[in-house]
Design a protein that fits this description.
Layout lengths: L3 H10 L4 H28 L2 H12 L3 H8 L5 H10 L2 H20 L3 H27 L5 H82 L1
Helix pairs in contact: 2-7, 2-8, 3-4, 4-5, 5-6, 5-8, 6-8, 7-8
Length: 225
């Protein structure tokens, strides 16, 4: 059973490099916890039933109802659809791309930090290994202090390496998980945006066809007169 003194003693034995390793570990812990709570909140905000209602309203030609259903939602897909529906006359594709980019940026926040920590932690541990070995070899000329100094330097090197690798392993698993979730969200947004564009384009073509069909009898009547 590890106690407080065990961690404090090993922290001291690890040498000065343990301070930046401690900062990296605290940063990794804070980022992982923040991302866990964010993704949990996003999961609670998902509203697939309303998304289906929005698509159903668009399919029936009621774009106003679709806009009403998607307004004020905290679901990222519905927020993107609302932006597209309210800017379709200006630039539907552009509005969808901007809204999707904002959602992806929110989902991918701090991933760069986690990626940096995964790489930085082992490097700090390696640096601690090198400095510990250098400290050990510096005492080899003194026979009285050689054994104790060498063992102390090796212990310093191993502690720093173990901590660096431990932090990297701790951050790597959540980093890969969050990266996969961002990819899934990006796929969902792209799929919803494509479906929205296709359905609105079909509605516009159907409306234009009705207008053209309605104008033809009028022209024929005028020509016969």
């Amino acid at each position: 059973m590890f106690d407080k003194n065990f961690f404090v003693d090993n922290f001291r034995k690890g040498g000065p490099i343990m301070w930046p390793i401690l900062i990296v570990s605290l940063t990794a812990l804070a980022v992982v916890l923040e991302r866990i709570f964010w993704w949990l909140g996003r999961w609670l905000r998902r509203d697939p039933k309303r998304i289906e209602k929005v698509f159903t309203a668009i399919e029936t030609g009621d774009v106003a109802e679709a806009s009403r259903l998607s307004r004020g939602s905290r679901d990222p897909v519905l927020r993107m659809m609302w932006n597209g529906l309210n800017h379709q006359h200006a630039s539907l594709q552009g509005a969808l791309q901007v809204a999707a980019g904002i959602e992806i940026k929110r989902a991918g926040r701090f991933l760069v930090v986690m990626d940096t920590l995964v790489t930085l932690a082992p490097l700090l541990g390696l640096l601690g290994t090198i400095t510990g070995l250098m400290k050990s070899f510096s005492f080899l000329g003194n026979e009285e202090l050689a054994v104790q100094a060498v063992t102390g330097g090796i212990a310093e090197a191993l502690i720093a390496t173990a901590c660096g690798l431990g932090i990297a392993i701790f951050a790597l698993i959540p980093f890969n998980f969050f990266t996969s979730r961002v990819s899934n969200l990006e796929f969902e947004l792209q799929t919803a945006a494509t479906n929205l564009e296709v359905m609105l384009e079909a509605q516009n073509k159907a409306r234009e066809g009705i207008e053209i069909t309605g104008d033809t009898p009028t022209s024929a009547t005028r020509s016969s007169i």
